[in-house]
Design brief:
Helix content: 25-40%
Radius of gyration: 20 Å
CATH class of the largest domain: Mainly Beta
Distance between the termini: 51 Å
Number of strands: 5
CATH topology of the largest domain: OB fold (Dihydrolipoamide Acetyltransferase, E2P)
Strand order of the largest sheet: 3-2-1-4-5
CATH architecture of the largest domain: Beta Barrel
Strand content: 35-45%
Structural class: alpha+beta
Largest sheet: 5 strands, antiparallel
């Protein structure tokens, strides 16, 4: 049986290793994000986005491909953001071909 004096350092070491692993995965392969104004929305259906164009604060336009539904972000919701000029944050991943795929969104 492990004594408490030996168990605490083991737990701390384990927690440190997990923290470093999560940090490395975020830096190396995690999604990136951009915040901007909605310029255009193309819908695949009432609930899914086929593409989304944002313009960031510097004026750069970003074109994203949507491959699913994102909680609370239907095409009509994004059109509302466009009409009211309310910014959204898009979390995305870049494919091997350079395309940007939406992973998540936030107001």
């Amino acid at each position: 049986m492990l004594r408490l004096g030996k168990l605490v350092p083991v737990i701390l070491l384990f927690a440190s290793v997990i923290s470093v692993a999560f940090g490395v995965s975020t830096v190396i392969g995690g999604p990136e994000s951009v915040r901007g104004q909605v310029v255009a929305v193309e819908s695949a259906s009432v609930t899914t986005i086929s593409s989304l164009t944002l313009q960031d604060a510097s004026g750069k336009k970003w074109v994203f491909q949507g491959i699913g539904t994102f909680s609370g972000f239907t095409p009509s919701h994004l059109e509302e953001h466009r009409a009211l000029r309310k910014a959204v944050t898009v979390e995305y991943e870049e494919s091997a071909t350079g395309g940007l795929t939406i992973v998540g969104m936030a107001d």
